[in-house]
Amino acid sequence: MLIGLILKFAVMAAFLFMFWRKQNLTWGVGLLTITSAVLLDTFLGTFNRDDMLAQFGFFFYVISGLLIGGAAYWLFSLFQPIQTLVQQNPAATAVSPTSPPTPPQSNTAVQFSPGTDETGTAFDRQMIFEEIRDRLSRDDVLDLLFDLGIRDNEVMNLQQDMQQLIINVMELTAQRGQTGQLALAVERILTPPAPESLPRLEKISLESPPTILRHYLLAHYDLEKLQKTAVALGIDWEQLNVTSKKSKVRDLLHHLYRRNRVDELIALMQKNAASAKES
């Protein structure tokens, strides 16, 4: 009895951990389903199961149907990326049993069907994919993740090439209804807004989209000014990504957003701007 209870709560803890790492609808439904099932089973096991089932009556079958539906949705969502990948590359399923598996090739042809965003607007997903693949660098794609609020561990792993990273981004944004936002974010990276078209510093606040703050820092701050800002905020400049100015800006903002300190950055920027005007 005790071992069974420990196993139940271990499964709940595993789902809670996965939801904490990937805060999306799939793992939210999975966590809610497994938690409800464990609590229901524990409740029935604590009291007389037959009496409780008799009192629940038809309502028990409604609860069971909801739990089965939640489990089915979780499983379907979990394996959907694998099914999509197989559909995009059907040749991968026709490997001879005697031949070794062939590693995925970065030049494999990929076809995306047209899609819509949450407003129902249609987009040419194939064109978006090709624009990202042909015109954006890996650094640009990382900026794309930042602008769309996508965490690295949602689309990246150690054994993937650039094409697979882009495919993961395309699939995740489609699932979230962000295809329109993806198209707009790609265009903003290809043609960054002019400095004069960005909001004035006094208009930037915590409610401003992260991409606005990123573009403002890129437009108005050089590396020396960025370093002074990081030092003033108590951030080790050497720990930030050293490959480029874009990487420095992105890592600085990631660091502050994860620690809920963006308001400190905005206040410091506005203070420095006011001091510069007075002098």
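The above is record 1. Record 2 follows with the same two-line structure.
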Amino acid sequence: MWDYSDKVKEHFFQPRNAGVLEGANGIGDVGSISCGDALRLMLKVEPDTDTILDAHFQTFGCGSAIASSSALTEMIKGKTLDEALKVSNQDIADYLDGLPPEKMHCSVMGREALQAAVANYRGEVWSDDHEEGALVCKCFAIDAVLIEETIRANNLSSVQDVTNYTKAGGGCSSCHEGIEEILVKVMTERGDSFKPGAQPKEEVAAPAGLTNLQRIRKIEAVLEMVRPQLKRDGGDIELVDVDGKTIYVNMTGACAGCQMEALTLQGIQQKLMEELKEFIKIVPTKVSSLTRAMKG
């Protein structure tokens, strides 16, 4: 489990301003349920002064997403729109006494929801897909513009940093080369040099002293946790092999070839990264248990 601050736990278990805000005149929607996180931020703004009188949220996501949304609503109430727009994702994390690096994307999502809600109030068009930017991460629909802006704003220096803050690269990993190209560009401009394999900002170390057997048991424990839900839908998952940071699994039954297979694997991969506290990749195979037994 991640090391959450007491304030994060407080805002998760007792979120402020959750639910629909009656009379809201500024609404911002970001993220998507298919990507694992979605947030609606609702503002009630005094037209004469542009002061935020109230703010509520609805969030589909993890505990950090709920806590970040709760914190944001508390931070912006009483501010003018221009003052509120100065709140950064790092300000949200600081308000919560810090977020695990792997959960910083939750504070970024809150920042974007605020921008969207203010734009909605002002009658402006705002989009979180940055249509002018090339799509880099297809798994989570993250484009080059958002990645570059986040790298600049948070002084990021590794691919895992970018994944922590935006989720880009946290799925199939095929976009890592594209992320590296953006890192090289931004870091060169600020006088730094990109080093492949560099440690992420404020990286949380993997549990020390784990043997290969202990690591495999942790992986199997996560699979056991998700297995009942898969079986209810007529499917299952089995561990095939572990090769460094790549974990091979076999989807069986109704899960094999299902349209939701990729999304299911993304969710399992996220759970595995949370448990192992390291960046891993989960890869589906078509190797059956019988085939493996015959090869053995």
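The chain has three domains: 6-121, 135-189, 212-295.
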